[in-house]
Structure formats: C-alpha cells, structure tokens
Amino acid sequence: MAGVLCLIVAGLGWWQAVGFRKSLTSSLKFFVFPVIFLLGFYGVLTFYSVSQGAVDVFTWGVLSVSAAYVANFLLVGFAEELMFRGILFEAFRTRLTPLLTVLGTAVIFASVHLINLVHGASLQGTTDQIINAFAVGVMMGALRLRVASIYPLMLFHAVWDIVTADFEITQTTGTTAPTPAVTDAVEAGSTLSPVFILQVLVPLLYGLFVYWRYSKSVKAGKISDRPALLNGQTTLNPAV
C-alpha cells in the first residue's frame, strides 16, 4: 500500500501538497503532551502487569519489539498518514472548512476499521476500535493543521502503534499477546471501562484543544488556514 501511494503522489507531483514539507517548528511542541500521555499511560499498565506477574517484560510488551516489528509499524504509520492526513486531508480541505476536514477524515479513518469484521473480529471489539480510531483521528487531524507537515505525524503514528500494540483493547487479529490483569475487565466487558474511556477521551479532547489553538492562531494572523498550494493551485490536481 505504501509503495502504491508513493507512486501515485510522485506521478502526480503531489509531494508538497500532501504534507511533505518543512514543519512549523514552533508547533512541534504540541506533540509533547501526547507523547507523555502515551508513554506514561501505557508505562503504568506495563509496570502494573509485570508487578502482578501477569507478563514477562522481557518476552512481551514494549521491550520485546524486534526490528521487523518496528519496521512494520513505521510502514503502517507512513501509509495511513499519507492516505488520511495527506491525500484525503488536502482533498477535503480544498472543499470544506478545517474543522469539517478534521472530522471527515477522522470518520473515514475510523470506518476503515470495519474491515476487521471480515477477518473474524467481534462486533464489540470492532466497535471499540472504531471509536478509538475516531478519537485518534481527530487528534492527528488537528496536529496536521497546526504543524503543516506530515513527517512528524508519520513518526508519531508509528510510535503510538508500537506502544499500544500489546495493550490493544479490542480483539481484532486473533493473535494478541497474553492478556495482563489490568485489561481483563476491558476485554471482557465494554466501552465503559475506565481504561477505554481514558484511551478515547484524552486524544479526542486534546485534538479539540489543538484545533482551538490553531483557530486562535489563524484569527491572529500567525498562520494561514489556506489549503496547501501546488504550483500556485489550491487543488491536488496539477492539471487544473
């Protein structure tokens, strides 16, 4: 998928339009909180699981990742961000308001996870993942607006997936790692689990906060809310 998307973008000359450009350096600070939350939240879960003897930290969890494991998630982060916060994002942005662009791409990003039902995932698990994906999609979309570049989003997406992979709330692949005690109630139960609520509300609320800050900066004239330009055009189609 990553290769196909790259060929499309390269062939049509969309590199800059879809976000392959320099980041707004001053905006990179908006990644600090989600990184702290990510490492802190799942770090606590890992520590609790190890302390309860539910998992061997050297054979399972964040410390067990291999080069192939990391490479896989780097490719996933690259492909998904290029698709959703790159191509689709800029296509929507030429026609919709920034807020609708963020929400629209988040809805599509979340809806794609319906395919897990085809692979045997439970309805409950898929629903949980869709809700979580929407929340993360809102956060990533807001960050895309504020940072302007897709590079940091690709890296952060990969890190997010790597860290959360062993703590997946939903059972979507059938090949999940041993379940730690701290997630027993989550996996047996529902979207009302405290762990699940935190996993959804934190990125969703932070995404709305970043969007609010973005809107303030636009109104103050500090940054532009115009879609990415390509050869003087405001469309992804260089022929238009």
Number of domains: 1
Q: Quick check: average pLDDT? A: 77
Low-pLDDT ranges: 57-63, 169-189, 229-240
Strand content: under 5%
Order of H and E elements: HHHHHHHH
Number of strands: 0
Q: Could you give the distance between the termini?
A: 27 Å
**Would you tell me the structural class of the helices and strands?**
mainly alpha
Helix content: 55-70%
| Major sheet | none
CA gyration radius, whole angstroms: 19 Å
Number of helices: 8
What is the molecular shape? globular
Any key phrases for this structure?
about 240 residues; single chain; about 60% helix; mainly alpha; globular; disordered C terminus; 8 helices
Give structural notes.
With 240 residues, this protein is mainly α. It has one domain (30-49, 65-219). The protein has helices at residues 2-12, 32-51, 67-93, 98-111, 123-147, 151-164, 184-188, 194-219. The longest helix is centred in the middle third of the chain and has 27 residues, at 67-93.
